[in-house]
DNA sequence: AATGAAATTAAGTAGCT
DNA sequence: AGCTACTTAATTTCATT
């Protein structure tokens, strides 16, 4: 019912880079009719292979010019402590991604703020609490999205 | 010429979550006519406020089930060394993001592989070279996208 | 079962007030 | 900006393999 064939893979790979392509463009690229392509795309959305389609907003316009990686150490406690924190951080506008990780840190956040001062405020409000044992900030000078080609499966 | 007003901000915020909304839906949400909304969206694309629109593919389907953060230390050398490495990594299918950062590490990569063994291979091929002084791998147990609401600007 | 071609419906675009 | 007409794309139907 939810098998993915090579046409589907091709479509996913195209839409991953540009979700605004028309049925005709997709048809051209994969070698099927426009109708068949769009039928497949719809199915891929239904079965969750395509989770969602989003617009990438320029960080400048979004007013978030400073990006940081924050490694958080959470003090030992109830097992759901990390999940509670995760939910708390997910609700903050400045937090763009949350990684639950192994190693010295427990959570790694990517944070975007309007300025370093805004980030300083952010840390004071959110990291100086009983829930956070320690944190380390890594300033991102530049970030790049990688755009993988058809994927030479490792 | 490229001023962003509050209607534009609202549109960006809507499309950031779901880029497949129709003019009518946008109109309903922001309080303008469908045509006006789409005109604005088109302009936002032209001025680069909307960088692009992409489909988010389920990691399972993409066949990349293991996610890692890699902190790379680059030996001192020509100033363009980091940029050369950045470009090299950007071309790899397993690398999804590249951060050029301050601190102990110089580059932080997010890497996605089909398995841990695949990642082991990946490190052998790409990190055991003269260009990499050392690296540290952080295994991501779970990752979450944060979905900021209208943004309580910090 | 899924495709392609044609017909229908809906969306996006352009012109005018 | 809004409204309306025009154009293009998406969706559905249907005959075909």
Automatic annotation (TrEMBL), chains A, B:
GO molecular function, a single term: sequence-specific DNA binding
Record-linked SUPFAM superfamilies: Dimeric alpha+beta barrel, Winged helix' DNA-binding domain
Record-level GO cellular component terms: cytosol
CDD domains, per the entry: HTH_ARSR
Stored InterPro entries: ArsR-like_HTH, AsnC-type_HTH_dom, Dimeric_a/b-barrel, Tscrpt_reg_AsnC-like, Tscrpt_reg_AsnC/Lrp_C, Tscrpt_reg_HTH_AsnC-type_CS, WH-like_DNA-bd_sf, WH_DNA-bd_sf
Gene Ontology biological-process annotations: regulation of DNA-templated transcription; response to amino acid
Keywords: DNA-binding, Transcription, Transcription regulation
Protein's UniProt keywords contain DNA-binding: yes
Domain HTH asnC-type: from-to ranges: 4-65
UniProt key word Transcription regulation: yes
UniProt name for this protein: Lrp/AsnC family transcriptional regulator
Domain of life: Bacteria
């Amino acid at each position: 019912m939810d098998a993915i064939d090579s046409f589907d893979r091709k479509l996913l790979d195209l839409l991953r880079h540009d979700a605004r392509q028309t049925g005709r463009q997709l048809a051209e690229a994969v070698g099927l009719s426009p109708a068949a392509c769009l039928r497949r795309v719809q199915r891929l959305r239904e079965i969750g292979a395509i989770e969602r389609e989003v617009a990438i907003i320029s960080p400048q316009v979004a007013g978030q010019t400073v990006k940081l990686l924050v490694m958080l150490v959470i003090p030992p406690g109830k097992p759901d402590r990390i999940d509670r924190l995760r939910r708390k951080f997910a609700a903050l506008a400045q937090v763009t991604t949350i990684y639950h990780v192994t190693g010295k840190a427990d959570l790694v956040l990517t944070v975007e703020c309007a300025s370093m001062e805004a980030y300083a405020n952010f840390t004071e409000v959110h990291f100086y609490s009983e829930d956070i044992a320690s944190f380390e900030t890594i300033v991102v000078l530049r970030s790049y999205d990688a755009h993988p080609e058809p994927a030479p499966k490792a």
